[in-house]
Amino acid sequence: MPPDAITSIPGLRVGHWTDRRAATGCTVVLCEGGAVAAVDARGGAPGTRETDLLRPGNLVERIHAVLLSGGSAFGLDAAAGVMRYLEEQGVGFPTPGGLVPIVVGAVLYDLSIGRADVRPDAAAGYAACRAAKSGRVSQGSVGAGSGATVGKALGMERAVKSGIGTASERATDEITVGALVAVNCLGEVIDPDSGRIVAGARDEKGGFVSTLDILRGRPPSALSGGFINSTIGVVATNARLNREQAYRLAVMAHDGLSRTVRPAHTLVDGDVFFSLATGATEAPVDPITLGALAARAMERAIVRAVTEARGLAGVPSLADLRR
Q1: If DSSP codes are grouped into helix, strand and coil, which group holds residue 297?
Q2: Are 159 and 306 in contact (CB under 8 A)?
Q3: What confidence score (pLDDT) does residue 204 get?
């Protein structure tokens, strides 16, 4: 049975590099056969790489890897290691001077916990590629989710550890869509089915406080510069899509974020989702169905990111709080 993960899409492999002492890491999604890709960046503080080439009308239509990294903008250095790995594998866009691997990426801010002077670099990106595999994907406080936290409206001392999560949904017997996401948001994570807070800012008794209630009681600028966040991820399918259809898939994946993270897409959340379409099957699929299921996979992946996390660098996880 295929895993309930983004790796249920044939041809995709996922690898992590994790530094638990520094509470940072990176994650790579390899699509060495190439995939039509798009991006939708909706947060106010994004950190990204090679997103311009994903716009319709540009020369390069297929990419070979997506990097998700901690380390804020420093973490974009990890892409150099991903490129080196792919070049060694003979993977890339053909040019007169040789193959050039196409690697897109996004970063999240995790410098507030662990060690701010240790960030994913080229060696980390290369190691994540070496560790990449199909099948089961490690979740929680690993890879790009190593330093991820949620519920920071009352400060880091009231935050909860988050991480990285993945899930997949079957659209037809032949077509699947999956999601992989590192959740590092200002607000709380909500169960989209019940509406209850799964993880968020903690009150003095250990319960969770609504970020909206916190915001109502603060001056307009009190939270604007204090915390830099970002929920970054990938949705992927084996369906055959063009660039415009892939973009719509990324757009609809944000619906899953909006239903599970409150508030989403704020000025201090650099929320970015990539989409990948490998085109491994030419079976027809309704793009509305595919997008709706991409959002559902994203919902489930976001909830898993916090439920699978473990405490790190003094930030407790849900498992720690339940003891």
Answers
A1: helix
A2: no
A3: 85
Domains of the chain: 6-321 (3.60.70.12)
- Name 179's Cβ contacts closer than 8 Å, sequence gap at least 6: 6, 166, 167, 168, 233, 234, 235, 236, 253, 256, 294, 297, 298, 300, 301
Q: Which pair of tokens denotes residue 145? A: 């989710």
Q: Is the pLDDT of residue 229 over 90?
A: no
Q: Could you report the per-residue pLDDT of 243-272, keeping only the tens digit for each?
A: 999 999 999 999 999 999 999 999 889 999
**Spatial distance between the Cα atoms of 26 and 123, rounded to a whole number of angstroms:** 11
Q: Which pLDDT score, from 0 to 100, does residue 225 have? A: 47
User: For residues 148 and 312, what is the distance between their CA atoms, to the nearest angstrom?
Assistant: 10
Q: What is the overall mean pLDDT for the chain? A: 94
* Token reading at 205: 């008794």
Q: What is the pTM of this model?
A: 0.96
Cis amide prior to 263 (ω within 30 degrees): yes
Q: How does DSSP classify residue 52?
A: G
pLDDT value at position 219?
61
Residue 222 has pLDDT above 70, yes or no: no
Residues 73 and 60: their CA atoms lie apart, in Å, by: 24
What is the H or E stretch that residue 243 is in?
A: helix 243-260
Instruction: Say if CB 181 and CB 302 are below 8 A apart.
Output: yes
Q: Record the tokens describing residue 150, joined without a space.
A: 């949620």
Residue-by-residue DSSP string for 155-216: -GGG-EE--EEEEEEESSSS-EEEEEEE---SSEEE-TTT--EEE--B-TTS-B--HHHHHH
pLDDT recorded at residue 267: 87
Nearest one of 198, 166, 155, 154 to 317, comparing CA atoms:
198
